[in-house]
Design goal:
Elements (H helix, E strand, L loop, with lengths): L3 H26 L18 H16 L3 E5 L3 E6 L8 E7 L17 E3 L2 E3 L7 H19 L7 E7 L8 H6 L7 E4 L2 E2 L2 E5 L1 E9 L7 E6 L5 E2 L2 E7 L11 E5 L4 E7 L3 E2 L9 H11 L5 H14 L12 E2 L3 E2 L1 E10 L2 E10 L5 H13 L3 E9 L2 E2 L5 H14 L5 E4 L11 E3 L2 E2 L18 E3 H19 L4
Parallel strand pairs: 3-6, 3-7, 7-24, 8-25, 9-23
Antiparallel strand pairs: 1-2, 2-6, 4-5, 5-26, 9-22, 10-20, 10-21, 11-13, 12-16, 13-15, 14-15, 17-18, 19-20
Helix pairs in contact: 1-3, 1-9, 3-9, 5-6, 8-9
Amino acid sequence: MVDEQFKQQVDAYVDEVWEDVVADIDRLVRHESVEDISAAEPGKPWGPASNAALVEAEQMAERLGLDVTDVDGYLGFADVPGASGPERYLATIAHTDIVPLGLGWTFPALEVTRKDGYLVGRGVQDDKGPFVLSLYAANFFARRVAAGEALPYTLRCIIGNNEETGMGDVPYYLERYPEPLFCFSPDADFPLICGEKGLYQGRFTSDQVAGEKIVELDGGTVPNAIPGQATAVVRADAASLPAAERVSVEPAGDGLARVTTTGVGGHASMPAGTVNAIGVLARYLLANDLAGAGERDFLELLVTLTEDAYGRASGIAATDDKFGDLTCVAGTVRTQGGRFVQTVDSRYPTTTSDAAITERLAALGAGHGCSFEQTSSDAPFYQSPESPEIQALLDTYAEYSGEEAKAFTIGGGTYARHFRRACAFGPNLPNEERPVWAGTEHGPDEAISEESLRQALKIYIVAIARLMELDL
């Protein structure tokens, strides 16, 4: 199937549809599709905002000539029928939900802005932009089927809707449908991700100590991101508090001051270069005696948790030859019913376990007047990079990029970990030179270059064609 004529047809197709691709990315970005379980209802298990993006995506797929199925609002899928029938199929899986917008945007977060060859907006990289690429890759094959060509396998675009918070959509799907013969998720970096660290989350809850000097602590947006901002309302005269780097102070009412700290946010799996705003806040409050006895104990716990992002200070560090170092970040802090609640997110290698992490963090919390509970865990995932499917993808990436293509592992978690034969495959180029204003996934001014997306669409089409040629 894949020869020079085929690749020329792919080039012509991408040129033809590109403006439609960008317009469809914009349609999805305009949905603030953040999970809201409190507003869930039948057919909308992740809340109405997430469901609106799912419906938009399903309508998009129908317009592109795909056979669409909605799976009770948990997720959807769109097929190009093949000779194998619906039981034996190849798949892509991407998602239409997003993390909260957060602070610090200088571009509109809920629309696509074009600037200097980049698309900017929440989800352009993670994962609405790549999802739209998956639909257009399928549309390429749908056109060929409509013209009389038969595909060996059905091609399915799975439309995820709960990736950012729990991936509860995929287990629901797998209870009702067979697994794909092979699946890739366009929700990561090129060349190809063949393994993912274990995923672990938990939370510390203080004794009922809030209120003596700290009226409120609030920081971060989601547990799986390094917080770029944190605040504390404290019993103090704002004018008497000293200036400090990354710290601002303002009056907050009679006898109260609001202390706001600014860090450098980022994804919990990639903490290098970040600055945790919760740690900055805890250190400032301690240095200026802005904590009662029990409050001080909790702040000292926060200092330990943010001393490094690799679990060394907290005593859970681990490493192995496949995944490298464990990471552990303090993601959100909240005040609830007179107690402080701090979440942690850890990505762990094969040389430790969720039980070992829980045991150590529980002991750490007990030493600071806190209880600790594990809230979720998922074991490490690894796929052999020597499999024919992964080699087909790597060869295609190498051909288009002109670079050596080697599979690697990450600390992030993608949908691939839920399938027996799967990987994560682009479209982000981690070594691409980016403008200083271009933000990354989960952060403000999230951006991705149009040229990288155009190339990724070509790579996906050709890679799918090569998968179709395999005996699976």
